[in-house]
# Entry
Amino acid sequence: MIGPIISSGIVSPAWDNIFAVLLGMGFGFALESSGFSSSRKIIGTFFGYDFVVVKVFFTAAIVASMGLLYLSYFGLVDYSLLYIQPTFLTSAIVGGIIMGIGFSMGGFCPGTSLCAAAVGRIDGLVFFGGMFIGVFLFSESFSLFENMFYSGSQGAKMINEAFGISPELFTFFLVLAAVGMFFGAAWVQKKVKKVEY
Amino acid sequence: MKKIKNDGSFYLNPYLGGVILGTVLLLSFYISGRGLGASGAVKNTVAATVNVIAPQHVEKSAYYSQFAGGDKEPMSNWLVYEVLGVLAGAFISGIVFNRLKLKVEHSPKITSRRRLLFALAGGLVFGFGAQLARGCTSGAALSGMAVLSFGGYITMVAIFGTAFVVAWILRKNWI
# Structure
């Protein structure tokens, strides 16, 4: 079966939302079981006492990007049917900076706050509630940010194109960088004073 | 799997957790042709709520009208179903690994009240930024990275780079 099996019509689109629930369950399970329901565990990455975020995030990124390239290579997935996040340079940078501030204030990102709320962490629930206010404020003030929102548009640009190399070669370097970070994280973690949490 | 907490809760080995997460993400692209997300469901819920209270306002808004109003069904959306799954999956993991407990998690050096105020403000700021960047750590950064999206990588670097600096400014809240 050539994926994506919904978009290519192999499986009826009526199943899409059922798969959405199942995939979401896998996502929530993976995050919570790795420790992403704890803000102090997540934030440990920035102080060097717990690198779970770096380990889980980059392992997932290399598994998924290598997996897609392999599936594409063996003709099992049509890469052109995959949704590739379009690049709007200005809003990607400014939005990312704003998210980084929110991340360090709240200790969560949206997905992890939901996982924290699911296991009874009130701080996770409050963070998730705060998001509704933030989204509402953005939507109401959209006209102020509209220019920034659409500026720097580069379409569905891929990062290997930016470096002028093939997707496979880029992913190879990504794996090297990730493995380097894993060893670096282990080294730093040994040097840093343990924080009880 | 090793026991790391004296209350009997367990965490998966982070690399095993990463492989599971990466496999789920891969399956998401293989099945639905898209990555995983979280903030999009909040956006659709806000748009749907405003649409119930003030439909004309939604029609006039250049932002809400992309997601709600007309014959759009913002609550019958892939991301909304997926996020309901996240809640269920995390809850199941909480049962399996013995972590279900109602509490406010915070550094012993700060009060619960301070922690909750920062959590609320952090959520607000994050939610705002996720709209500007068209997605959060899951939808823009992680899912973007899986398909080598340039914007996804840029957003990832911006989030983690900024968070690193701000975490040190706010370190009294955490360590």
Observations:
- The longest strand of chain B covers residues 2-3.
- The first helix of chain B runs from residue 14 to 32.
- The mean pLDDT of chain B is 94.
